[in-house]
Amino acid sequence: MDILDTYKIDLLDSQIQGKSFEYEIKDSFFAAIDGLVQRGNIHTHVECVSVGTIFKFNIQSAGTVIVPCDRCLADLELRIETADVLNVKLGDDYSDEGDCVVVPEAEGYIDLAQYIYEFIALSMPITCCHEPGKCDYEMMQELSKHQSTRSGQEDDESGDSNIDSVESYEEKGSSAEDKPIDPRWSALKDLLN
Questions:
Q1: Which of 28, 92, 105, 168 qualifies as a FRET site for 189, CA 20 to 30 Å off?
Q2: Would 11 be classed as within a structural domain?
Q3: Segment 97-128, tens digit of pLDDT
């Protein structure tokens, strides 16, 4: 049995109204979904309120996920708490109509796995970084070797690379000035003067 089969809800079940579903989302769930989040431990409570052919699922998730830090790539544990609503109705063909998902009546079930994952992923911050000073020290040291400062000079222990780069820039500039300028550009330059 596929791990995601437990997230399929039979909409044609006559006793679905008021029914609750409890899910313990672990690493195997995230591996099966194959998204950005690869590990975590989240408890999800799903409650179904149905009216005729329209179903409303209240989905509440709480727990932690582990994602790579955007700055140092080390594991970062994020606390997740989300409360979302998924509206589903039966129809002829599968479609997504804004805030309502249409499921073919012939199939008669909704797979909540992808929706639960999306609600979890959307509750994460845009940038996932450790607090200042908590990033992996070795990675931050390596990054500082390759990062430019705000003044435009490179962080280099010897400082010689700055001199080399200025000299090579001046050489390139002088060779560019030696080339004849297209007369059309000269005319445009005269307009500026």
A1: 168
A2: yes
A3: 778 999 998 888 999 999 999 999 999 999 99
